[in-house]
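During the second half of the funding period, the structural biology subgroup turned its attention to how the target accommodates small molecules. The most pressing case was NAI, which had performed well in the primary screen but for which no bound structure existed. We therefore specified the complex as follows and requested a full 3D prediction, including the ligand pose.
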Amino acid sequence: MHRITLINGDGIGPEICESVVRIIKSAGLEIDWDIQTAGADVIESEGTPLPQRVLNSVKQNKVALKAPVTTPIGKGFRSVNVALRKELDLYANLRPCKNLPGVKTRFDNVDLVVVRENTEDLYAGVEEQINSDTAHSIKIITRQASERICKFAFDYAVKNNRHEVCAVTKANIMKLSDGLFLEAFRTVAKDFPQIAAREILVDNLCMQLVQEPSRFDVLVLPNLYGDIVSDLTAGLIGGLGVAQGANIGDDCAVFEPVHGSAPDIKGQNKANPTALLLSAVEMLKYIGEETYADRIEAALFKTLSNGDKTQDLGGSLTTTEFTEKVIQNLV
Ligand code: NAI
């Protein structure tokens, strides 16, 4: 039996986790879930939002399914999400973005993949207060991390029959840092002559994505641009409720949706579990359970195609009702 770390998260996390665990169990796959709490709820009892036991569990099990964890804005503890990715060296944040059956959006031909560098850039957490009126955030870009993420993007393109990788930067302004990322991209691209290599500035990319997203295939971006652009691309396919993701390193992988803990709908049985479910489907493929992954995905697609949806997609189902529909559609 697979032993997998399950980080329940907070906000809507526990609700969507319950849904996904039920669906996987109903599909007939027994998983030994190693449940690990993290976030604001454990600070008081353990003194940190990310206790060492959580990291140890992921290191041991190699695979985790993670629901969102709230990060308070401004002062306080460092983001659990950023820390987890850094501590486990989950350097690649993979966010495939494809239209879902039954979810009508402005475009019906979106099929792109965002590959976001996960360990450095302005998210390295190097900040200093110069005086009461000035604060600095340091943007860190290294050749090693940039080459590693670009190689991941090209490898992904080869393995998944993609034809192009596009590097997204603002190298015209940040000539040293983004310039280095671009240099790394060009170096790596030489090893993949079968994949087209393209370059674009992030502002132009955003404009083109909302005009004609089918112009793009695999995008590779430094951390901050990747974070923002992947929310934009989530919007192209129906919003955060359906956008899946994964954080992948050489030793372990943490599968989690793009969205956050959605405190505005917490505890209301309104959350859409689709993004976490699709992340879990990718996780099942990653651990070699393709048959279960395909069955669950087919049940989800059938449910959405039947017009059975949660409120964020214009439907009226609660999280529980939607979960039950997916289970009914498992064949
Ligand atoms: P959010 O993604 O939590 O919510 C944005 C909007 O989308 C809200 O209106 C929310 O109701 C809606 N939404 C999100 N997921 C949904 C779902 N599954 N079903 C239906 N509606 C959904 O973003 P926000 O409000 O900026 O962040 C809230 C907290 O989550 C913050 O503390 C943030 O730091 C944290 N966060 C955590 C992430 C993680 O754990 N990986 C990722 C992003 C944010």
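Two results from this model are relevant to the next phase. Residues 1-97+244-331 form a domain with the Isopropylmalate Dehydrogenase fold (CATH 3.40.718.10). The longest helix spans residues 143-159.
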